Amino acid sequence: MRKFAVDLHLHTALSPCAEEEMTPPAILAQAAANGLQIIAITDHNTAGNTPAFFEAASGGPVNVIPGMEVQTREEVHLICLFAGPDEALAWQEVVYAHLPPLKNSVRVFGSQQILNAAGEMIGTEDRLLLTSTDFSVEEAIAEVRARNGICYPAHVDRPAFSIIGNLGFIPPDLPIPVIEISRNINRAGVLAKFPALGRYPILGCSDAHRLAEISRARSLVSLEEPTFAALVEAFWDRRQNRIEVD
Questions:
Q1: pTM for the full model?
Q2: Could you tell me the residue ranges of all domains in the chain?
Q3: CA-based diameter of the chain, in Å?
Q4: What fold, for 2-245?
């Protein structure tokens, strides 16, 4: 095994709160310049740009994991990761069916740009993405697991849109492989604040919405190869610590 530098929480121009500079060529170039070897594309309640990133990354130094940051009815953010864009897009259709039938307001929330591999806008997503699905935390995790994905709480240390901030705790029987902490805290800091989190492997990610934020927080994961299957194995491996917050 060797250690791979990963940042598994990146937004693109499809997330209305992200900058328009967040295109496949720009993100992949910034990730490579920062020494990242694996990234995940995790836009809000959508996976629409994952095919473009998968295509743009082909044959390059940065491996892309397709994903999504889904918002539950409790306003908890969960990271959902899948083996390929087809699986991520299938999950997107499920999520879209569980979003309220509201239109995005570009003036209020920002544009939601669908991109090609070259970073050119080829369309927009008109539905409102910055809102909650009607899934509970438990339901969302179960749905992702049923589709052979992995799902875990995002930025658990934050007061808003986090499982601890909104529920007050992590249910002990929740079938999650890891927890994610934000770039505002390190492993020692989050364990000092929430000692009970020591029972989970801890993953640090940037939650980047602009290029300058990429890999401000990242993790080193011990893997046989930089693939989704290897990540899944590492995340569920409780026998040894295979994740380090860098």
A1: 0.97
A2: 2-245
A3: 50
A4: TIM Barrel (3.20.20)
